[in-house]
Write a structure and sequence with these properties.
With about 110 residues, the protein is mainly alpha-helical. It is about 70% helix and about 0% strand. It is rod-shaped and about 95 Å long.
């Protein structure tokens, strides 16, 4: 897997794999889960402090799970894009070296 510097591939405009992009997306997903869970934790804490602790621990576990899911999706996309790019380069190389894709010129000897 090639680690790019964020430049686009020119066709789709999507950047190549970037560890910074991976970190921002994963941490952003975790922060979003925790941001949504804070009002829920606050509301539960008005009723019962131990229940709020349980909800907070569940929110942390959910944030970790969401970060893992997002990271896996980002890496899978990068691997799929790179393998598709490699397959495209392989077909161009074999088509250029192997002339089976073009008909042979007529020599007049065919029967």
């Amino acid at each position: 897997m090639t680690v790019g510097h964020g430049e686009g591939d020119g066709v789709t405009g999507s950047p190549k794999f970037s560890i910074a992009r991976l970190a921002i997306l994963a941490m952003g997903a975790g922060a979003l889960v925790l941001g949504v869970s804070v009002p829920v934790i606050y509301g539960v804490s008005r009723v019962s402090a131990p229940a709020a602790l349980v909800v907070a621990l569940l929110a942390v576990a959910l944030a970790i799970a969401v970060m893992g899911i997002v990271a896996n999706r980002v890496v899978d996309r990068a691997v799929d894009a790179e393998s598709a790019e490699a397959r495209g380069a392989d077909t161009e190389t074999t088509a250029g070296g192997d002339d089976t894709s073009r008909p042979k010129p007529a020599t007049g000897d065919e029967r």
